[in-house]
Amino acid sequence: MPSRKKPGSVLIIGSEAVPFAKTGGLADVLGTLPQALARLGWDVTLALPRYRGVDEGSLAARFPLTVGGYTREVGIFEVSLAGGSRAWLVDCPDVFDREGIYGPGGGEYSDNPRRFAMLVRAALEFAALRGARPSVVHAHDWQAGLAPVYLKTRYATHSVLGGIPSVFTIHNLAYQGLFDADWLPRLDLGWDLFSIDRLEYWGRISLLKGGINEAEVVTAVSPRYAEEIQTPEFGFGFDGILRRRRADLAGVLNGIDVERWDPEHDPFLPRPYSADDLSGKDSAKAEVLVRYRLATDGATLKRPLVAMISRMIDQKGFDLMAALADELPRLEATFIVLGTGETRYQDLWTGLAARHPDRIGAHIGFDEALAHLIEAGADIFLMPSRFEPCGLSQMYSLRYGTVPVVRAVGGLADTVVDYAPSRRFGGASSSGHKKSTGFVFQEYTPQGVLEALNRALALYADPKRWKALQRAGMAQDHSWDRSAREYVRIYERAIKKGFGIRDSGFGVRG
Ligand code: ADP
Ligand code: GLC
Q1: Which residue range forms the structural domain that includes residue 134?
Q2: For tag attachment on the chain, is the N or C end more exposed, with fewer CB atoms within 10 Å?
Q3: Atom number, ligand 2, closest to the C-alpha of residue 221
């Protein structure tokens, strides 16, 4: 149901967004959510840093900004986004014109608290300078965790910013923005915040905790993850903090950019294709094999191509894959990976590819075009995640007719329905509602992945059923519109709370 209330304005703050900067799914989300909200009539501004290499936008203003005695002149470069929304790129070369987004070579810059405080403060102060008071501020992950904090402290009685409610979205609880407590004065924050129900976390401060505790409403990027993070297993020590905010915690499943990720119009594919005619997928597969220097003979083309595109870290199940290293070349499949991450996993995959050049390909690097080609050319997409707040790649795979094999966690559990023979391909599930779209396993063990993978490989040998499974996935709708409507309801709820209007809360399912 579309909201009947008058649309308002939202200032979204985060550390990465397509097309300006990307290391993972957060960038995809912040690159698409603004347009989806704008389609619902909302006035949307997205604030993010103007990192090295970002040269879009025209200068809207320059003004001095002081955070904890550190003064710099900051610039705001404005870029129009589709649908009438806009981005504010915060220019402050001393903190943002650096080699990395978060740190050198995957590390962390020691002044990250200041860097992201500058982002948040520049965005809020520029809104105030313009007299453009947003109805709500939507902050993402620890890098923007200070937005709810400043709104509740420094700007609480500000003539323009005073009383603006905020929504804080958790994309990944594993990144907690933990810093020494002596950062508090350097961020213009009082020691009263160094308490267990504010920012203090085991003797340090957590900017993630600040966002969670100070926002009116907290969301996680899938309904399942919103439940999981309240348990010790997935809570990373934050489960108690989140249980405390249970009444104000909701899960909103991410959408995907169905224009950027569309097999019928994807400029990175040799030939477009659709559910009616999947032949373009074969051309993409052949090209992937060439790019990975794998054979393109009939047998290899026929053999199922299993792909991973991922940050190479434990979260994504790379330790399980390492345990299966000897097994993989023996399976009736070809494996490829595209990713960057921990050296041990990069080395493992390049080593495997060198030893089994007929069966395994590895590409270490970040390559958007290749990612699109692989989503199209692979037969099976593998995401054996230990935890997965939402996951976007499996939704891209569904849309590209590439069957996902995933673990039943977070957004993977919310978006992929396990194929069970009793459920029939693409038929109704035992619960009578959902169609099978992939293969799902429960246990985080090498055997768990292997069993699901083997089930997938077995069904691949049955082309009729396989095609039905592909088509069931392709028929799914994961566009942003529904999720954007949910965010609007959440914004309205935060606004109501900001006015001190009591409501009953929503909590999460269950
Ligand atoms: P996460 O944000 O945890 O990394 P998601 O599944 O939400 O996981 O999003 C990952 C995004 O990053 C997807 O758009 C995926 O295609 C992209 N991606 C990950 N690694 C690479 C890579 N090496 N090259 C290109 N794109 C990548
Ligand atoms: C994080 C999560 C991923 C999610 C993405 C976008 O990077 O690891 O699961 O899809 O954020 O919300």
Answers
A1: 9-255+482-497
A2: N
A3: 12
How many domains are contained in the chain?
A: 2
Q: Assess whether 90 and 137 both reside in one domain.
A: yes
- Residue 308 CB less than 6 A away from ligand 1: no
d(CA 131, CA 169) in angstroms, rounded, equals 26
| Residue whose CA is at the smallest distance from ligand 1 atom 9 | 25
Q: Which ligand is nearest to the CA of 381?
A: 1
**CB-ligand 1 contact for 391 (6 Å cutoff):** yes
Q: Are residues 363 and 472 in the same domain?
A: yes
Domain CATH code at residue 288? 3.40.50.2000
pTM higher than 0.85, yes or no?
Answer: yes
255 lines ligand 1 (CB under 6 A): no
Q: What is the tens place of the pLDDT at every residue in 377-413?
A: 999 999 999 999 999 999 999 999 999 999 999 999 9
Express each pLDDT in 221-263 by its tens digit.
999 999 999 999 999 999 999 999 999 999 999 999 999 999 9
| Residue 86 counted as domain residue | yes
Do both 170 and 244 map to the same domain?
Answer: yes
Find out whether the beta carbon of 25 lies less than 6 Å from any atom of ligand 2. yes
What span, in angstroms and rounded, lies between the C-alpha atoms of 465 and 403? 12
CA distances, 343 to each of 186, 313, 364 (Å): 34, 9, 10
pLDDT along the chain (510 residues), means of 10: 74 98 96 97 98 96 98 98 95 97 92 98 98 96 98 96 97 98 98 97 98 98 98 97 97 97 98 97 98 97 98 96 97 97 97 97 97 98 98 98 98 96 51 80 98 98 97 96 97 90 54
Q: How far is 210 from 106, CA to CA, in rounded Å?
A: 24
What is the dihedral angle through the alpha carbons of 263, 266, 269, 271, rounded to the nearest 10 degrees? Answer: 70
Question: Distance from the CA of 160 to the center of ligand 2, in angstroms?
Answer: 33
Query: Which is the closest atom of ligand 2 to the Cα of 225?
Result: 9
Residue 429 lies in a domain: yes
Q: What are phi and psi of 211, to 5 degrees?
A: -60, -45
